[in-house]
Design brief:
By secondary structure, the protein is mainly α. It has one domain (about 10-95): Multidrug-efflux Transporter Regulator, Chain: A, Domain 2 (Orthogonal Bundle). The protein has 3 helices and 3 strands. It has helices spanning about 10-20, 20-30, 50-95, and strands at about 10, 35-40, 45-50. The protein has a 3-stranded antiparallel beta sheet. Helix 1 (about 10-20) crosses helix 2. The chain is elongated.
Length: about 100
């Protein structure tokens, strides 16, 4: 790396750092989730990003994962409450 210049990474390098498939990193770049620049023409074009951008994207992935886990726990709790209520209604209905 040259002083003052950001460290540039290809999508396979970025994917390796993120722990995802290269295709997933490329898709994230194409959709604008991972800031990157497509360099070249046609089949020879490659996506380039920076190490700082990979770190930023990794942090946003962690936030989304944490949110998804919270939502899954919430849904599981609601489902449990619903099943308990249904069991109570079934027990009453069986006595009638």
């Amino acid at each position: 790396m040259i002083d003052g210049m950001p460290e540039l990474l290809t999508m396979p390098e970025a994917a390796r750092l993120l722990g995802i498939a290269p295709g997933a990193a490329t898709a994230a770049a194409a959709r604008g989730y991972l800031r990157a620049q497509r360099v070249g023409v046609g089949r020879r074009a490659v996506w380039i990003t920076t190490a700082d951008e990979v770190a930023r994207y990794a942090a946003t992935r962690q936030k989304r994962r944490t949110h998804a886990e919270k939502m899954a726990r919430l849904v599981a709790g609601i489902r449990s409450d619903y099943e308990q209520e249904l069991d109570g209604i079934t027990a009453v209905a069986d006595r009638i």
